[in-house]
Design goal:
By secondary structure, the protein is an alpha+beta fold.
């Protein structure tokens, strides 16, 4: 991608993020595609200065220069200074773009139909303004004789808006394109441009319409079905009569004769057909074909592996105004059933990724879109959304399932339905060829599995849809996410403790004995719910390498206590209790309605891993990140974090299949609810897209999403990289690195002004989709501890080089921590709690921030270390618990809007509000203060009252104004309703 186009793509995203444009998931996906490499298959490069959209580290103009140090204990820290300069360049370019070089309706987001593209206002609503003249100015006057469209545009008869004049004739491929004066041109040659001439090969002339049609298209018999052209939907093929109109005839029985009678119980379809919602008989048979769609003015061509990357062999056909489609069957190329085929769209001579594609595939080192060509020989299972209803202690479920025959038309002979592994019966509707499944289910998580085999022995891919029976449907925005670092959290079974017996290994990097049984004991005590955490992120559970390994660039030896050096794809580390302990922990969590995310390692394995031993060709070795000739930027996808951690090559199809299958295994075998996806920017795009597609096909058809939250370590201005990976076909959310970098460590040590804080939060609100599950954090297993930064202590790493106190006692530090937690728990994103931050465990840089969790007497039997919390630490934990209670009891905090009400250098009030209440977060780092007549929007409310639910603030409510007095160095939460 050229520098100009690259920066223009970023500028476009900046406009979206700033609210000048409104966009949906498709737009986000298009952004990803705009930033991906495009190359012609003849070797010439088209806009290919970037190696991969995931590798923001590899982009010379948008790199943050940082590494995912959490992926490996030895990853070097890299400065973010390069990020600031690069992002400044991007922002400046975005400003220039906004000043006059952007397309129609650049400054008027209310213009909702410029060039036929809906543009929403800041509230997300399409309003009534129109681009009546097709120019930049938006106005309410419709186009007509007195207000004509400008040249190149026609006044559309239905909505009186100016639409771009069709550049092609109106009957190309049998589709009429209308304007204010329908054009009379004919596509006599079946392709553009419109001119009189003979039909090309594979076309025939329709004498009535005087246009060319493909010989497999209109008015041509398809197979043995519907020899009469008046039958308009026989076999699912639309046939138009000689007047170009679709007649009302119906193929009610799927046979040769056309009938006006709809299919019904009395008039059933023949064997192999099913009665659709339109009361027509459709073949209950898988089609060995793939249909691609595109929206745009210019006709696209499909170039891919299947046609030798030809840019002309497979044009899309017009199917409506600015709508294009193509159906590819086995005769169109060399497709492998059940495999992904790489392709790109060629539009106006430019290569581009397909914005509608849910797959990605590399071909000869180039990233492409992909489609999965169906393995149509075997039957296919499809399930409707599972509807549930709470009835008290449990509930009901209901759904329908259709099993489509394989292309051999063998009858489905064996169908099995399982609810949580137990056989259940389905009610079969022979007319519609569907099964109805319904019944009672206990509270909690369930899996509805469907298996099918046909008479020819062909087995369908299983569907195992997840659903929950809950009194209150779970919402990820309502919960905090608790990071549980297993080896340092709780020791429930000392018989599996196995530290490495080597005096040269410092205790801080040896195994400490934490395990899943200990974590389960904490879970069953209600500890996580008390902190508002209905979701737990487990550090990696994979079996780890034995012994100790050298620190990159240092002299220390380290063991795999952290979990990021796996040697097995599916074994659970024995020190954690093995597979049985993981299953027990997840089951116990589900009984409490708690979701569990596993840390999914997608970038590296240890050189002793079973896959590396058996398949070294799946991995890349030889280039270590940050060394000479192997910088973090240009080698972000293929460098190793350390020489003993081979890099997974996601461009290898067999490696991709195996690692996706392993992710599916953790869901299938243990019931985990999703993943924290490690080191996203260091792996190829297909690692996210193709994994999501596979998970969706098997587990998500019933409507419950398997959540994937990514770690894309970027700088403070890289909002676009965070959001670019998120969407329906990708991640659900990411950790909010930009906001973290904008606020820490100053938000903890009190040196940042709240104007800067508010700006950082507003930027995140503007740049991120409100539906995304982004995670806000101030501490993690990759950062020095919150209390250490709040105290401005040393952030050293090793206890043999420096020592940070085991307990902090400065009361001012705890006041600042309470202020920071009050802010974090009121932010729009999901707040993260890293175990130990709730009790102010100190710690410097990696590995010092991984100290043992400290427990009071209630948990002394499972404590890993021997440090106990003091009164200040327990008081901080109680403060966080009160914040969690407020979040649980006041939906406005998690679901409502946010607005700042008062900002000074060290004083801050913001509100989370909905139609019924307004929750005020009041933070004062200075002396005692009175906020006078703070304005509240209480219009339409009645019976206003205010109540302090946390802290010592007092208040006086006077109509839509409130006066608040708060002690110095304190925080409070006030509810007005």
């Amino acid at each position: 991608m050229s520098m100009q186009k690259f920066l223009s793509a970023i500028a476009g995203w900046a406009l979206v993020s700033a609210g000048l444009w409104a966009c949906g998931e498709d737009d986000v996906e298009i952004l990803v595609d705009a930033l991906l490499p495009d190359a012609n298959k003849d070797g010439s490069v088209v806009d290919a200065s970037v190696s991969d959209s995931e590798t923001d580290a590899s982009r010379e103009d948008a790199s943050d220069g940082s590494s995912d140090s959490g992926s490996d204990e030895d990853a070097s820290d890299v400065s973010d200074s390069e990020t600031d300069a690069n992002d400044s360049e991007i922002d400046a370019d975005a400003d220039a773009e906004a000043d006059g070089s952007s397309p129609i309706c650049e400054d008027t987001p209310e213009c909702n139909w410029c060039h036929g593209e809906p543009i929403k206002n800041e509230a997300g609503c399409i309003v009534d303004y129109r681009c009546a003249n097709g120019d930049k100015a938006c106005e309410t006057t419709p186009c007509d004789a007195d207000n004509p469209c400008r040249d190149g545009f026609d006044c559309h008869e239905e909505d009186l808006l100016c639409w771009e004049s069709p550049s092609t004739c109106n009957w190309c491929n049998g589709v009429e394109v209308e304007g204010s004066q329908p054009r009379k041109y004919r596509c006599s040659n079946g392709i553009d441009p419109c001119e009189v001439g003979p039909c090309p090969d594979q076309h025939q002339c329709d004498e009535n319409e005087q246009r060319c049609n493909t010989t497999t298209g209109l008015c041509v018999p398809k197979g043995d079905i519907c020899q009469t052209p008046e039958c308009n939907w026989c076999g699912g093929t639309q046939i138009i009569n000689d007047r170009g109109c679709v007649e009302d005839y119906l193929c009610s029985n799927g046979a040769l004769a056309c009938s006006t009678d709809p299919c019904s119980t009395e008039n059933p379809c023949e064997d192999g057909f099913t009665c659709g919602d339109d009361e027509l008989c459709w073949p209950n048979l898988r089609k060995c074909e793939v249909t691609l769609n595109y929206k745009g003015v210019t006709q696209p061509y499909v170039a891919g592996e299947f046609n030798g990357w030809s840019t002309t062999a497979n044009p899309m056909r017009s199917v409506g105004p600015n709508q294009w489609a193509i159906t590819l069957s086995a005769s169109d190329g060399n497709f492998t059933p059940g495999e992904i085929t790489a392709y790109k769209l060629v539009v106006g001579g430019e290569w581009m990724l397909d914005p509608n594609s849910i797959y990605r595939k590399y071909d000869d080192g180039t990233l492409n879109s992909g489609f999965l060509f169906p393995d149509c020989a075997k039957p296919e299972i499809s399930m409707q959304k599972i509807e549930t209803e709470w009835t008290g202690s449990g509930g009901t479920y209901a759904t329908s399932v259709r099993i489509v025959r394989g292309s051999g038309n063998d009858a489905v002979s064996n169908v099995t339905f399982l609810l949580d592994g137990q056989a259940i019966e389905g009610e079969f509707d022979s007319l519609h060829q569907t099964y109805s499944l319904s019944g009672n289910a206990s509270a909690g998580r369930h899996v509805l599995t469907v298996k099918a085999t046909d008479a020819g022995g062909n087995k369908a891919d299983d569907v195992a849809s997840i659903f929950w029976i809950e009194e209150k449907p779970f919402n990820w925005h309502d919960t905090a996410l608790y990071l549980l670092f297993l080896d340092r959290f709780a020791n429930g079974d000392k018989t599996n403790d196995a530290p490495v017996n080597d005096s040269g290994i410092l205790p801080i990097v040896n195994w400490h004995g934490g395990d899943l049984k200990g974590a389960q004991k904490v879970l069953e005590s209600g500890y996580f719910e008390s902190l508002g955490a209905k979701a737990i992120w487990l550090s990696p559970v994979n079996k780890q390498v034995a012994g100790a390994w050298g620190e990159s660039g240092g002299s220390h030896q380290i063991v795999g206590y952290h979990g990021y050096w796996p040697i097995s794809g599916r074994e659970v580390e024995p020190r954690y209790g093995g597979e049985k302990a993981l299953k027990a922990f997840v089951d116990a969590a589900h009984k409490r309605g708690i979701r569990v995310l596993l840390d999914l390692i997608n970038n590296q394995i240890h050189e002793q891993h079973e896959y590396f031993v058996a398949h070294p060709e799946w991995f890349r070795t030889g280039c270590t990140c940050g060394t000479s000739g192997c910088d973090w930027d240009s080698h972000a996808l293929d460098c190793m974090f350390t020489p003993y951690l081979p890099d997974i090559n996601w461009q290898n199809p067999e490696a991709e299949k195996q690692f996706i299958a392993d992710a599916m295994y953790w869901i299938d075998e243990f019931g985990v609810d999703g993943f924290r996806v490690d080191a996203v920017k260091h792996v190829e795009t297909n690692a996210v897209y193709n994994m999501r597609a596979a998970i969706n096909r098997k587990f998500e058809q019933g409507g419950t999403r398997v959540v994937m939250i990514g770690e894309t370590a970027v700088g403070e201005n890289d909002y676009s990289w965070i959001e670019a990976y998120v969407g329906e076909h990708a991640l659900d959310g990411q950790f909010d690195f930009p906001t973290f970098h904008r606020m820490e460590p100053e938000i903890l040590n009190g040196s940042i002004d709240y104007h800067t804080v508010e700006q950082a939060i507003k930027l995140s609100e503007e740049r991120y989709s409100p539906s995304a599950l982004h995670v806000a954090y101030l501490g993690s297993h990759d950062t020095s501890r919150m209390v250490t930064r709040a105290a401005m202590d040393s952030e050293c790493k090793w206890s043999d080089q420096c020592q940070i106190a085991s307990t902090q006692t400065d009361e001012g530090v705890y006041q600042r921590l309470k202020a920071a937690w009050t802010l974090l728990m009121g932010m729009p994103q999901i707040p993260l709690i890293y175990n130990g931050d709730e009790v102010a465990i100190p710690g410097g840089n990696d590995p010092d921030m991984r100290r043992d969790m400290i427990w009071d007497s209630d948990y002394s039997d499972i404590a890993v270390g021997n440090v106990t919390p003091n009164a200040q630490q327990l008081d901080l934990r109680e403060w966080i618990r009160q914040l969690a209670t407020a979040r649980a009891e006041h939906p406005a905090i998690t679901q409502g809007k946010r607005r700042e009400l008062w900002i000074e250098y060290d004083k801050y009030i913001f509100a989370r509000y909905d139609q019924s209440e307004c929750v005020l977060f009041v933070i004062n780092r200075g002396d005692a203060y009175t906020f006078t007549n703070v304005g509240l929007d209480l219009v339409g409310w009645s019976g206003h009252e205010a109540r302090t639910i946390m802290g010592n603030a007092t208040h006086e409510l006077n109509g839509s104004k409130i006066t608040i007095t708060i002690p110095g160095g304190s925080s409070s939460v006030i509810v007005v309703r």
